[in-house]
Each structure stands twice: as C-alpha cells, then as structure tokens.
Amino acid sequence: MLEIRGLNVKYGAIHAVRDVCLSIGKGEIVTLIGANGAGKSSTIRAIMGLTRCTAETLSFTPPGQPPLDLQGRPAEERVKMGIALSPEGRRILPHLTVEENLYLGAYSRDDTDGIEEDLEHAYALFPRLKERRSQKGGTLSGGEQQMLALARALMSRPSLLMLDEPSLGLAPFLVEEVFDIIQTINREGRTILLVEQNAFAALNIAHKAYVLEVGAVAIEGRGEDLLKDPRVQAAYLGG
Fold this sequence. Notes:
The protein is an alpha/beta fold and 239 residues long. The protein is built from 10 helices and 10 strands. The protein has helices spanning 40-48, 75-81, 98-105, 112-125, 127-131, 142-154, 172-187, 199-205, 223-228, 230-236, and strands at 2-11, 14-24, 29-33, 57-60, 68-69, 83-86, 160-164, 191-196, 208-213, 216-222.
C-alpha cells in the first residue's frame, strides 16, 4: 500500500530523516519507534505532505487502483486519495463542538449519506464522544480529545490511517483503551502507520516495526521479534 525508498527530510543544516525505506502492506499495523528527535514525526509528516522531502520512491496504492506517486501532491490531495493523519498533540479545534470537529474531518467528501453513516460509526467506536457531541472540544479531558482526534481522522474514510503519538500524556488505563480501538479499526480493514514512544504497547500490536535512530532505520522486523530483540529491550523496553 505504501512504499518508501530513500526518504530524506532536512531543516536547514539539520538532516532529520536519512534515506529511510519503509514498506507497508494492505491491512497491516506498522509502527515507528525511537527516541525523541529520531525522525519519527518528520517521516510521517513527509508522507502526509506537511513537510518538504526528497525520495527515490514515495508511492501509495489506493484500494483498486494502481500505485500513485505522492511527490509533488499537496496534503489535501493525499487526503482525497485515502491517507489521513491524527497528529501529535491532537490539534482539535477547541471552540467547536465535538460534532463540528468530526464534520471537519469529512471536509473533502460530498457523499452526505456516507458522512452521516461514518459519524454514527465514530460514535459507536467512541461512545463518550456521542455523549458529548454538543460539548466544546476544548472542555474535553485529554483522553477524550485523543479519541476525538482519532475519530476526526476516520471521517475522511481513509484506507491508510497514520497516528502520531496517540498515547502521549494519557493515563495507563486510557492508553490500553486507545490501543484496543486501534486494533478494532485495523480489523475493520484499515491499514495503520503508528508513531509511538510507548514501544512496548506499539510492538505488542504491530505486524511490522521499524526503529529509527538519528533519522535512519536501525532495526526492522516483526513486532513480536523486536519485543525479544536485546537491543530494543535495552534501549526502549527498560532492559
């Protein structure tokens, strides 16, 4: 579904992402783990078209279509192609209601019936959002705002859903709930690219994982294999 070869991101003299290669198959959960500053968010933002990059290959294959080159396409076009991002920090609009935030997630669509169907599905996934549908987004708890950010991303009906630090700042019981929901979304047929600092939680649900160090891929493999890798255990799993 997504093929990346030789991805590079630079911010002036800082080479944040160095020749990164990733492959994400349809229906997979793929995770990027690494320390702060490793290049995880820069990678995911480059895929979304929010950060300038260069690449030998940056190719996305929507369901039922041939591979499409993402390079040179603006972020809004990538959304229409079927890529969505739930960003780090949630980035909800605090002065809009929960429901208004969700409708904004579907801004690229014009299928009214489908939008209403997906709204109800979002409320089924996140019952607390339905209870607070008329409440201002800024008055929600941190966990509820994260659920809103996830649900908003789903409203564009993506085939590839990218999540940037969905567990950041959440209590442990909410982290477990968010990861359960991510697995549910995946079982419904969506491919997921997950950027996470909570390596244990991410590797436990990932089909495939990449470890980024100083902007480059240092280790890659199946999630279950990386959980047992002594290098990953020492650096990211507390020994």
